[in-house]
Design goal:
3 domains; Jelly Rolls; 23 helices; 6-stranded antiparallel sheet; about 650 residues
Length: about 650
């Protein structure tokens, strides 16, 4: 690399300092994430064999980073700073490598503009602060490409040095992450289109060497690909995945979109050379950015869901080369003005638009414990029923770190949902404290509000929520809509009922009950526009109905579905059997739906009904549909909010 001091390097120094500041801002306050705790919990084994068997084989990632972190933590400890610092360093050198590639492939201005985005975008800032294989993979992917392009296009007298660098970096990519392994394979194949016959043998030997270095990992590779992997929690990508991904890259910000558009137009208008379409590096960048997305998309759709933003970070800089590669090399004064201005826009949208530091630096695991402790201090331990549903091992870490202890029930400890209902139904305490993460049973708040109807407090965190409920009826600011069908005068949205199926005084508190008889498959239906029920994605719709069986076994379902103009978009349901105690008494079935669709889309309709699929006999009473505010930042570090 040429480190001769020039105006370009002065601007690059500004970019590096800016990127470093964004990554070490309040360094001691950066919390460990769930995935980082997972890494820590899988270290400290007595032998390398145990590390592989118990620390690597149980995961979905290659062995490289887990093995590295095992020995790094052994040397430097488990503090958040110690765990994260290697990846912050990778993030720093990634900025430098992006500049070098941009300068050599296009010109210094392209390198500087691209490096500015790498320095300031949430995408790269966040993954530089997380000890997972993403920023390490991006660094070694760029190092691999740097050695590859030097060997193929400008080897000089050190061609063997560049080839060795390419081989080593490629092997590290293979051990780092399966998408960086995929990228290494794509880069290797790409070289076949440009290699000369004189170097074909040495390039082929390099490919064999990379594979040879990976042979020890093949057993892990085949074992992990036989497992279900992340599909247990990762959904298959929608058709608009690429649109959402590009929106995420640019902070979902109209200001950033406009700035990028101006840069693109400037590149087109000011370009005096042959243009981007005449450059081989345009087509290389296009292939390298698009192929992992296409392969990941179709593999996720038809085999196993694997496509995430994090896995695409290894080829992300080549998307920026596509966007900015047409720029000419600007004068020194333009660079001095443009780079700080672009940095300012990206930093402002990072801090205020994406609220990055306020979201990422608030560990839900820590704050759920602090919120619970504050509630107990304010209302008294004897008057608060405390339910926790956060990762036990991580919570134990914070109990010890914060020196906080309090009596509580953990939701995982209940044998079934009815055991949980028995507890909250029979307690004499006036307040219920609930701390949950994004994987918690969605129905819990709705169930609790049957017995503690007032939601006094709701705090939203990335990945979790804290709630405080009270028995005392009060002003409920979280409720958006309520419609009740008591079968004696229906609320809005309900279909007409058959009067002959009403049984007077058969319901709870002598209210009318509705008979679902053996020949009736579907109950009266609630139908309402989604946009009139909720305001935004993540808002919740709670449904409940009281049931009394007349037959011994009830296999019915409480169904909520969302329909669009072209048909069914979402179908969800809860089983009666999960709430039925088999005693012939009244019981309440609950179902909760978290809105995933954009409620502003036209023609979205919510339908709620009972599906009496076995056509049994039972009574219904108090059929209620209620919507409430969700957590707008639940996925806020990855989605628009």
């Amino acid at each position: 690399m040429n480190f001769r001091i020039s105006s370009n390097h002065l601007v690059l120094l500004f970019i590096l300092l800016t990127g470093t500041l964004l990554r070490v801002w309040h360094l001691m306050e950066i919390p460990l994430t769930h995935d980082e705790f997972s890494v820590i919990f899988r270290t400290g084994y007595d032998s390398f064999a145990e590390l592989i068997e118990q620390g690597v084989m149980v995961d979905v990632h290659p062995a490289g980073i887990q093995v590295f972190m095992n020995y790094w933590i052994e040397l430097f400890g488990q503090s958040a700073v110690a765990v994260k610092i290697p990846f912050i360093i990778f993030g720093f050198f990634t900025i430098l490598l992006v500049y070098e590639l941009g300068e050599e492939w296009f010109n210094p201005s392209v390198g500087l503009i691209t490096a500015t985005f790498i320095a300031c975008l949430e995408y790269t800032v966040m993954y530089s602060q997380i000890a997972r294989p993403y920023m390490s993979g991006l660094f070694f992917s760029l190092l691999m490409v740097y050695g590859w392009q030097r060997y193929l296009f400008s080897p000089g007298k050190s061609s063997i040095t560049w080839l060795i660098l390419y081989v080593i970096a490629s092997a590290i990519c293979a051990y780092n992450h399966y998408f960086s392994l995929l990228f290494a394979a794509i880069v290797g194949v790409t070289g076949l289109f440009f290699i000369t016959w004189r170097r074909f043998i040495s390039y082929s030997v390099a490919g064999v060497a990379i594979f040879g270095l990976y042979i020890p990992h093949l057993s892990i590779f085949f074992h992990q690909f036989q497992e279900k992997g992340v599909e247990g929690w990762l959904g298959k990508p929608d058709n608009d995945f690429i649109v959402d991904y590009i929106g995420y890259i640019f902070h979902f910000s109209p200001l950033v979109y406009a700035m990028v558009a101006i840069i693109i137009v400037a590149g087109i208008r000011l370009q005096k050379g042959p243009g981007l379409l005449k450059s081989k590096f345009f087509y290389i960048s296009l292939a390298w950015f698009s192929l992992p997305i296409l392969i990941g998309f179709f593999y996720s759709r038809y085999v196993n869901a694997v496509l995430q933003y994090s896995g695409l970070i290894f080829t992300f800089p080549f998307f920026l080369f596509l966007v900015f590669g047409n720029l000419p090399d600007f004068k020194k004064s333009v660079k001095y003005l443009a780079v700080p201005l672009i940095s300012l826009v990206l930093i402002l949208t990072l801090i205020y638009g994406r609220q990055y530091y306020s979201l990422f630096y608030q560990s839900r695991f820590k704050h759920l414990i602090l919120d619970t402790e504050q509630t107990i201090s304010e209302y008294g331990a004897d008057n608060c029923l405390v339910i926790m549903d956060s990762h036990k091992k991580i919570s134990d870490y914070y109990y010890e770190a914060l020196d906080i202890r309090f009596d509580h029930f953990h939701y995982d400890d209940f044998t079934d949902r009815n055991a949980f209902i028995d507890l909250i139904k029979n307690t004499e305490k006036d307040y219920l404290s609930l701390a949950v993460d994004s994987h918690t049973d969605l129905a819990l708040p709705g169930i609790i509000m049957q017995y503690f109807p007032s939601m006094m407090l709701k705090k939203d965190y990335f990945g979790g929520n804290y709630y405080l409920f009270s028995r005392t009826e009060g002003k409920e600011g979280s409720i958006l809509f309520t419609s009740r069908n008591g079968f004696s005068g229906e609320g809005p949205g309900w279909s007409r009922i058959t009067d002959s199926l009403l049984i007077d005084s058969a319901g709870i508190d002598d209210s009318p009950a509705y008979l679902m008889y053996g020949g009736q498959e579907f109950s009266p239906t609630f139908s309402y526009p989604l946009g009139d029920l909720v305001n935004q994605r993540t808002d919740m719709i709670d449904v409940s109905v009281n049931i009394r069986n007349r037959d011994s076994l009830n296999q019915s379902l409480l169904v909520l579905q969302v329909k669009g103009k072209r048909g069914l978009l979402k179908w969800t349901a809860s089983h009666f059997r999960d709430y039925d105690r088999g005693k012939g008494d009244w019981y309440t079935v609950h179902h909760t739906f978290r809105t995933a669709q954009n409620p502003r889309r036209k023609n979205l309709q919510v339908n709620v009904y009972i599906w009496n699929r076995d056509k049994t006999n039972f009574l219904c009473n108090n059929f209620i549909v209620r919507s409430r505010k969700g957590n707008p930042v639940l996925y806020g570090l990855l989605e628009k909010f």
